[in-house]
Amino acid sequence: MAILRTTPDGRPSVRLERTLAHPPEKVWHAVTSPDELAHWFPAAVTLPESPAPGGKITFTFTETGDVSAGEIVGYRPPEVFEFTWNSDLIRIEVSADGTGSKLVFTHVFNRGEPDIARLGAGRHVTGWVACLDSLEAALDGRTPEPPADWHARMVHYIEEFGLEDGEVLDDGTIRFRRDLVWPPAEDVWKRLPQPEAGAQVLESRSPEVLAYTWLHDGEPAGRVRWEVTADPLDGVRVELTQTVPAELSDLRPDLLTARHEQLNALFAASFGVELEPWSEERKAAVRGRYSS
Questions:
Q1: I want to staple 60 with a disulfide (CB 3.0 to 4.6 A). Which of 12, 44, 174, 260 is the partner?
Q2: In CATH, what number does 165-291 get?
């Protein structure tokens, strides 16, 4: 089970729960020993010899050699291990559950604008679910199966959390913001939908911004703007805005539906997946949702 929520101070967070067929002491060792963490945690972890609040942690990605830092916030064996990773907060809680244990894993996204940080929830949950699968396998003495089809896994949570939906801003502009994970920004730029014949390009700065007019009945009706942002810590995201004049407000559900399909295709393409065009039934369902 995975839940996307907001902390009392307004930060997005995800919470995952697992029931494990092992006693709390064994699970605690698996989530606090660097040797055991190596079986499931995404980075090699170095802890103080005697872990305690205030102790420093380092995380090393063995494939790249990248190192980041953290600090122990809470350490209460065999129940709570809480620490920062860069500015984010990770909390692992272990409790008895019958003859086994219940594990609660919480990740609070503390970096940047909350609404932007929230966009990455689908990707983070997908990764942590795979990690906890490996943890469970290690506890069971099994060899974990490598995750397959990351795109489908992420789409599941993106849909569940409502992260793929567009919105209408106060001035009537439609907007989509989507996390694209880690593709090169140049590749995203090449895949951006291009202006239709007769539209005017208003701005073109590869690989960051592409803006152009959109036409209605052959006449300019508004502006479409794509912005690609590459962040060294948070990956790549795209923001699409399309201005819609008040006299064409009835078109917004259709425009939102069309852009929604384009954003889904753009996200899939970043994983090398080519989606089939939406059926009329799916278009009608999405249009109906935006109409309401």
A1: 44
A2: 3.30.530.20
